[in-house]
Amino acid sequence: MRVALDILIWVLFAFVIIGAIPVAAGAYQFLLIPFHSFKNHYSKARPHLPRVAVLLPAWNEGAVIGNSIERLVKLSYPAGRLRIYVVDDASTDDTPDVVLGKAAKYPGMVFHLRRQKGGEGKAHTLNHGITHLLADDWMEALLIMDADVIYREDSLRRMTSHLGDPKVGAVTAYIAEGSADPNYLTRFIAFEYVAAQKASRRAQNVLGALACLAGGAQLHSRENLLAIGGRIDTSSLAEDTFTTFNTQLGGRKVVFEPHAVVLAEEPGSIGALWKQRLRWARGNVQLTQRFHKVWFRPSKVHRLGSISFGLFWFTTFLLPVAMILSSIGLIGLYFLERELASTVFRVSWFLSACTYVFLTLYTIFLDGPTGRRSWREALLFPGIISLLVMIMAFAPGSLDHWLPGLFGLQVTEVGQEIWTLSVYAWLSLSMVAAWLVKKVESTRIGRMLSPLLIYFVGYGALLCAITFDSYIKEFQGAAQVWDKTEKTGRVAA
Amino acid sequence: MSGVHRPGVVRAERVTGVSALTGLDQAELSQGEATDRALTDEALWREIAHNRRAELRLVPEALLALLVVAGLIILREVYFR
Hints:
The structure holds 2 protein chains of 2 kinds.
Chain A: H1 2-32, E1 52-58, H2 65-73, E2 82-88, H3 95-105, E3 110-114, H4 122-134, E4 141-144, E5 150-151, H5 155-163, E6 168-177, H6 184-207, E7 218-221, H7 222-227, H8 239-249, E8 253-264, H9 270-290, H10 307-317, H11 319-336, H12 338-366, H13 368-373, H14 375-379, H15 384-394, H16 399-406, H17 413-441, H18 444-457, H19 459-476
Helix pairs in contact in A: 1-6, 1-10, 1-11, 1-12, 2-3, 6-12, 9-19, 11-12, 11-17, 12-15, 17-18, 17-19
Chain B: H1 26-29, H2 33-38, H3 41-54, H4 58-79
């Protein structure tokens, strides 16, 4: 009996350790970033201005497509070396008229390609354009972008300079949130994009393995496009990530250029964000399964199989599982070994607090303007409740004694037990809470309350809840619907 | 403009006084004065060098962030031990 109990305690202890692995992996990833000062691709970049075909998939993008084309025309790039192809996915709004108007204004530079049967998804739309482009040999490089994104004037040439190295197959840029009328959610997204791109992708550059070419900014050499079969994978919801993996598995490098900036309009409501991110997360589940032979198998051809890259991928992909295991471990230990539960809780949350401070500050430093705009969302990314838990673990006795006293309350023994168990369970409960916020957002009062609730629950918890939902949807074999994110042309150029 | 694929032809040579757009048609070069100025050989090399130098700030920024963490840990040891 004692042996079984000991084994159970060890298993629960291991659960808490597993819950702390994503924190350690996050710190490790950010500690790699300074190495980008010396280990980057600039030594092999060179002035290189190939003939670039810009491929713009569009379905009912009348509100944004005209502005996007105008901005592309104004790119600092030799006009004779730049062509813009809009693949109109059988739009039913004024997209064709807008594009044809631009084609007439910029003859030989803007082209309208029309699909008669649309609605099959972005990858099909892209393939329609790629087939057309590969039919003649004008194109030397292909830039795949989204209809709503705005390229900074110097972005394209900063990207093409890396294609000067023939070993590079594709280059991606920094997609920054660029809404002219930001709200709390777009500010969270802005901060998230700095962390996920300017920070993480630099670390991935250092590792030599990139997780994803941003869907709105992927520049491929013609050779790479041909090598991956001259088409984009249509079987998944993450066509950009599949393309990224196929490029690297073929032995060609993929580079992230942090100084090429592209502005994008991001969802302004939790419902729209959930829809967008669920598609991305389901795509990642599909990719993880499809490339199951790649993980943790180092190769001489590519770096996707490295231990570090696998660690980064799976700690993000399985973060909700780690959070649930951590809660189970802590609660189980609480009933079996209360002292041990208290110790591992304090140690794991102390590490979380240190990592949170490091990651948040470093991310703010990496993009000062975004940091200044989104500092509240940066600080409250994990949510006010998680922040309080971190303070409790970091500075024992600070809040847990002081807070009840502030309200003239005296904590009873039962109250203390409920409080402790709630804190231990919070990592899992936060995802449920985020899901509930999404549910109430659709009500009138919920629309008003949801920003405040997200500040309490945490934007990070919201993303984890979406990832967990993606497991469920994939397990259920839910239909793959290409839900286009609604764009209204809010990007500030 | 030539419709013929010329692989490698536009890869720039680092030769002083010669356009970076080696191999480009003159017509392509004169698409606009501003663009031309931005796309000269020297300017493009300068831009790459600037981007490379900009990455050097990653080290002090990381150290500063770590320093703040260290400061907080010291405060914790002093006041909450």
